[in-house]
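Quick one: structure tokens for this chain, please?
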Amino acid sequence: MDWNSIWESIKNFVVTDGWQIVEALLILILGIIVVKIVLKVIRSAFKKSKLEKITQSFLLSVIKYALYLILLIIVLQIMGVPMTSFIAALSAAGLAIGLALQNSLTNLASGIIIVSTKPFKAGDYISVNGVEGTVKNIQILTTTITTVDNKDIILPNSTITSNSVTNYQANSTRRINFRLDVAYSEDIQVVRDTLLRVINSDGRVLSNPAPMVRVDNFGDSGICILATAWVDTEDYWSVYWDINELIISEFNKQKINIPYNQLEVRMRTDTPPAPYRELPKRVEKIRTTKQKSLLENILEGELPDTKSLKKSKKKSQEQKKQKKLAKNKKSQDKSN
């Protein structure tokens, strides 16, 4: 082993490339420190802002990875790595990852849209794509909704951004619609005064806008009445149920009839019942056996005697006679 040649190689490496490696390591250590300081400053600035926590977490993650990527490119450039090859390899890897995670990237982009546009927030009661419930949490890829019967439904964010969303708690007040029918014989003014008195008796109903009662349309069996009342969003369902119960009680007190479909059952006596017909008696079918002809017997080598011919002829006549009697009897039973 030539130690002199080895030493010369090490010496040449230290002289030519060693200082680049040391410089790259120093830049790497210094860069990590700078990145941590920058992230700490940004995190403290986010805490003072009004951004949602999910938005803060997402932006911090993006900034963190972007800063480390810039630091890595600087360190590799100091070490003499060709940037063209590195960027080409990075682009190819990004394309492969993008194709493999296409759905996830779609949900990621949808998550960014949700946290930036804020169509709803955690705690809001929403309806989207046939799912209705309270928003439990909003994540980068999915949103969790808790239904009224305490089931968690996890929706991809792309489903939310591609469908219409109804936010029942977006505003501080909501309007309750009461629709009911009254009989055509009722006095509309009395019905209107009764409904207004019932609605205004609840202190949770807002006086501005004032409650309203109007004739909505004319049904098959009654007049359709529409009554409206504005309440705070948090009181919507409790006021809706309470006033419905009070309406039934007050209508009973004022003897206001609510029509409903009725079914009338009658027994017809104008038409006589159909005549009864007795079952016919069973008559066995007479099945005759086919007799071979004289020619068939001759061809088969059998010559029938005259006695058997007379006997078969007599039997055939009797069968025809019985068949005729049965037919006559059947026609007599039918006429009776």
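The mean pLDDT is 80.
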